[in-house]
Amino acid sequence: MGAYQGQLRRWIRLLAARGVQDLVLVNRPWLREVPLPKTLFTISTLTRLYIGVWKFPDAGGLQGASFPHLRELGICSVAVEDGDIDAFVARSPALEILNIQGRMKGVRLRLVSHSLRCVQICSFVMESIEVVNAPCLDRLILSECLGPAGGSCTRVRIGNAPKLRIFGYLDPGKYVLEIRDTVITAGIKISPSMMITTVKVLSLRVRFGVYDDVKMVPAFLRFFPNVEALHMTSEKCDHLAGTFDLKFWEEVGPIVSVLLRLKVITFREYHARQDEIAFLQYIFQNARVLKDVMMQMINPRFTSLSADEMTNTINNMPNEKWVSEFDLAICRSIGPEGLSPWTFERGANLCDDDPIAPVKFITLRV
Questions:
Q1: Number of helices (H) and strands (E), helices first, in the chain?
Q2: Which of 170, 161, 103, 164 is nearest to 142 (CA)?
Q3: Residue 149 confidence (pLDDT) above 80
C-alpha cells in the first residue's frame, strides 16, 4: 500500500466528502511501517472505524483531528507508541467501544474517557493498562495479553471506574493487579475502601498446580466482594509445583462473594486433577446462594483420562457438606487446548449482561 499513498489519500478525501460513517482500512501486504494517511483524520463523520496493519502517527500528528461521532474503534496489528491510542481516545468524545488486537512491542495504555463503556484487548503486548478515569466503563476484557520482554507481568491498574461490572480474564501468572494505589498480593489485608463493589462478573485463568497462581485467587475474590458470576479456566500447567487439597482452601477462610453473592460458576478446561477438585469442593461447601454450575471437560485428546473418567470425579464428589442446591451441567470440549480465541463481537454486545459466560442459564418459573 505504501506505493499507492497518493491514490489512497484521494480515496479518503472522497469518502470524507460523502460523509462515510463505517470504515475498515487494512494495509496489504503485511508491512506495518507504512504510516496511516493523515487524511483519514479529516473524516469527522465516522461512527465506526477499524484500522489494521499500519504504523500509527504519533500523538502530535493527531493535532486538530476530531471524531465527534465515533462510537467504535478497532486497532488491529498497528504499530503504536506510548500515548498514541490515548490521544485518539481523547479526540473521540462519543467513543463507547475500544478494541485492540495484535502482537506489538510493549506499550503503556492510559484510559481517560467519559464515554467508554467497553474496552477489549486481545493478544497485544502491554507493559501496563491503566484505567485513570472512565466513569461509564462497564466491561474490561483482557484476553491473551502478553507481557513485555523479559518475562515480566503486565500491570493492570483500576483507578476511577465506578460502573465497572465485567472484568476478566485475570491471570495471576500474567498480570499484576493494582486497585487505586494498592497492589494486590496474596494475604494482603483489605479494607472496604480498597474494594471494587460494582464488579458482578469476574473471570480468572489459573494454573491450579502453581502455588504463586493459586494463592492469588482468594485475594482477587476478596477485592471484588459482590461477584455473582465467576468464570474459571484451568490453564495448562506443564510442571506441577504442588498439590492443593481442601485443607489449603479451608485455611483461606470465608470470602464474602463466595458466601453471600455467588450464583453462577463455570469451570472450563477441567482436567480432573486433585487441585481443581479441592477448589470446587471449597466453593460447593461455602456458596450459600449458588444456583447454576457448568463444568467443561478438557478435550480428551489432551489428557490421559477419558471423558467418562473425568465426569466421574465430579459425580463422585462428597456432597454431604454442600450448603446449597444447584443445577449442574457437564459438557466436554472438542476444541483446542486453551479454548478458542476471544472475539470482539461478544464483548461489544452491550445488551449481553455476561458475554464471558460459555453458556446461558435460563431459570424456568412455574
A1: 9, 17
A2: 170
A3: no
